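Appendix B. Raw example, untouched.
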Amino acid sequence: MNAKRSFQIIGTLVGLSGLVPLYLGIKYIQVNVLGAIGILAVAFYLCYVGYRTSLRFTQKTIRLICSAIYMWITFLVLMLLVNLEMPLMINILCSSIVLLLLTWLDRKVSDYYSKIIFGDTDS
């Protein structure tokens, strides 16, 4: 299996994973409107990544897929940090380090795979 096909499969799975927050956002809108809007924004972003993967696979799509994957990783790491019951400042520091690392890694990985899939063009 080549890299393009792998990214198309991952992008489709990311798009399908957007259906869960979409359902939760619709259910949660009766309880907290602002929280539901945030959840729905994430859901629409993930569904957009699935759309771009299915219909318009470009270099930007690779960047969107990598960003969506890192968004899920960030969510899981933050949930782990919250459950460790550390002091608030240490929690904030660890979260900031994770976000900065993943932001840097997102750019490097998406550029790397763009060069592999689409050749040595500027992304």
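End of appendix B.
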